[in-house]
Amino acid sequence: MSTSTMFSMLVSSYGTSLEIFALTLLGAIPLGVLIVLGRLSRFRPLSLLMQLLISVMRGTPLMLQMFAVFFVPFYVFGIQTGTDYMFTAVIIAFVINYAAYFAEIYRSGIQSMPQGQYEAALVLGYSHAQTFFRIILPQVVKRILPAMGNEVITLVKDTSLAFSIGIIEMFTQSRALVASQRNMIPFALAAAIYWVTCLVIEFALRRAEKKLDYYHD
Fold first, then answer.
1. What CATH number does the domain containing 143 carry?
2. Residues of the chain with pLDDT under 50
3. Angle of CA points 56, 202, 99, to nearest 5°
4. Of 26, 70, 166, 184, which one has the greatest count of Cβ atoms within 10 A?
5. What's the total number of domains in the chain?
6. Is residue 217, in this structure, part of any structural domain at all?
């Protein structure tokens, strides 16, 4: 099999990796906001529940979480799940896992803001919502962007874990090609594709950071 053919096959399965990546961000970014709001809530039971969720998600392997999402419906609730549920289980596990990490990043950004800014906004007649969205949020976004960028880049590579419950993404395809062709070229091609993807994300994040330079701490 030629190198170009192997590359075409990897690019085809790369679409699945990108789909996992995009759907995870689409779900985890807003869910992380809800989790951090619960985490910072003055309602103690809700705050403790969110702390427990974050602790479990950050303290157990993502692969184990995928197994739990995939097998629990059948073994605990007796719900039959077919092969179509595999991809859904991957997305659910990824979204909850990354939402927990994002929530902690959001929390660190929000809690790093000086209390004096809230007090000054109150004196100027801003409501709590206006203070948060017009004054606090732009500065929080700037502060958390590097940490968020690191997690997003990690997500690119974590998509390879989807193979554990039968999803054929790019890494799984490269392993199959290595086994059939008995050479390491597919791994090298897959590594190059992952690397280029991360470079593109890093470039986009740097551009975003430059656009936020007008917000000074």
1. 1.10.3720.10
2. 215, 217
3. 20
4. 70
5. 1
6. no
